[in-house]
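Schema walk-through. Below, the input block comes first and the output block second. Nothing else is stored per chain. Lengths vary across the set, and this one has 303 residues.
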Amino acid sequence: MIGNWEILKAEKFSILMEININKIKQDKTIKEILEFSIINLDKPCGPTSFQVAEQVGKIVEARKFSHFGTLDPLAGGVLPVALNRACRLATWFMKKDKTYVGVMKIHSEISDKQLGEEMQKFVGKIKQLPPVKSRVKREEREREVYRFDIIEKEGKEVLFIAEVEAGTYIRKLVHDLGLKIGGAHMTELRRTNAGIFSENDKEFVTLYELEKAIEEYKQGNEKELRRILIPGEVIGKIMPVIYVKKECIGKLLTGSPLTKDFLDEKTETKEGNVAVFSSDKLIGVYELSKEKDIFARPNFVLN
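--- output ---
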């Protein structure tokens, strides 16, 4: 094992309009937040992602739960877990890039320079066949690797960092590298970032810390639980935010499409998904339309 994990940060996402998550936390009751929130969990090594998400659901007594991106059972680190209505946000959060720090053991002697050069050959668009044990269909898929670098090398043990497109298998990446250098396999892996969620966030929490916060909440102290819970309105951090007039909220919450006269401000956004707000209230996620009289149609409405 090589040293301790190095603290690494991924690039921040470009945000068109800042959402005041702290204000939303203060204004909502803890029950309201629990109904529509995300927990940035430090997944332990061993159990599957589903097993860990299920445990979170039991701890907080959630009706529904889901996680944003499967982690290898033997891997740990950032595993965002959605509670109740926030489960509907998985579509958008799961597609975001991931960052990993891991340890691989190489099977043959190779210089640091040569290893680094071989790793760089995997940066860019690559083809991957999912592992036999994966739950997805085993067909070759294209994924993008943004970074694959050595952090530290000690003998045949290599501490590395990989920044990749969602759906990239790091164990397979290391295996495929091994085919080029005389063999390699991954021995440890930790996810440090999943989209906007990071192990450096103040909300990042272990199962033990979450359980303790729930116990304190049941005894009348909600301070720690309020710190941990991330309101689902954080969806406004990963897509453009559009504001609408307050008098239009009622129509939108009943499923009405969004027309230009509903907008509270001008926008240059022309395609893709947008988070629709009125002040700090999230109305839903909409897909911009090319129809003449319709600005956007709802994908998810928080009624």
